Amino acid sequence: MAEEKKIAQEKRDLLLLNRKNGYDCLSDKKIHKMYEYCEGYKQFLDEGKTERECVSKAVQMAEARGFRPYHRGDSIQAGDKLYRVNRNKGVMLAVIGEETMDKGSRICAAHLDSPRLDLKQKTLYEDKELAYFKTHYYGGVRKYQWVSIPLELRGIVILKDGSSRTISIGGAENDPVFTVSDLLPHLAAEQSKKPLGEAIAAEQLNLLVGSRPFKDDEGAERVKLAILDLLFEKYGMIEEDFLSAELMAVPAMNAKDVGLDRSMIGAYGHDDRVCAYASLQALLDIQTPKHTAVCMLADKEEVGSMGVTGMKSMAFDTFMSDLCDAQNLPLRACFEKSYCLSADVTAAFDPNYPEVFERNNSAYLNYGICMSKYTGSRGKSGASDASAEVIAFMRKILNDNQIVWQTAELGKTDQGGGGTVAAYLADRDIDTLDAGVPVLSMHSPFEVVSKLDCYMAYEASVAVYGS
Question: By CB count within 10 A, which of 97, 120, 209, 272 is most buried?
Answer without folding.
Answer: 272
